[in-house]
Amino acid sequence: MLFSAGLLCSAEIMGAEPAAAATNKATNEFKVVADQFADIQVLRYNVPEFDQLSLQQKKLAYYLTQAGLEGRDIFYDQKYKHNLLVRKTIEAILKSYSGDRNADDFQKFLIYGKRVFFSNGIHHHYSNMKFVPECRPEFFK
């Protein structure tokens, strides 16, 4: 069982690799760093004993995860009044964008989205400085 710290958005939106790819098959080595962007590293944790937990313990872990996801909106809202709208807009763009996803502007927008998701809003998670997308304003619009 794998747990990732940091990004709580869906892997589908971000284009993350599946959990099964967390181990390098050639060397059978577990990859701790799941993603790296801006000044952030998202880490994976290997929890091999998870399968040995009782059903009740697994259910508790599941419900605690769900509670955390539900509380995420409250946290976004408390940090800045427009954070929820910004996050939902970014999620919608990333899900529906039909242009070239390898283009430089889209990659810069993707990093901006990852920063918003990781920091639970548009302000840096330590310095609280607002960050803006590095893509061209025309692309952002």
Could you explain how this protein is built, in words?
Helices cover 45% and strands 13% of the residues. By secondary structure, the protein is an alpha+beta fold. The strands form two sheets. The protein has a three-stranded antiparallel β-sheet. A two-stranded antiparallel sheet has the order 2-3. Strand 2 (23-24) and strand 3 (29-30) form a beta hairpin. Helix 3 (83-96) packs antiparallel against helix 4. It is globular, with a radius of gyration of 17 Å. The model is unreliable at 1-12 (pLDDT under 50).
Tell me the helix content: 40-55%
Radius of gyration: 17 Å
Distance between the termini: 40 Å
Could you tell me the strand content as a percent range? 5-15%
Shape: globular
Counted beta strands: 5
- Secondary-structure-based class equals alpha+beta
The major sheet is characterized as: 3 strands, antiparallel
Task: Please count the helical segments.
Answer: 5
* Chain-averaged pLDDT: 84
* Largest sheet, spatial ordering of strands: 1-5-4
Query: What are the secondary-structure elements, in order, as H or E?
Result: EHEEEEHHHH
Q: Which blocks of ≥5 consecutive residues have pLDDT under 50?
A: 1-12
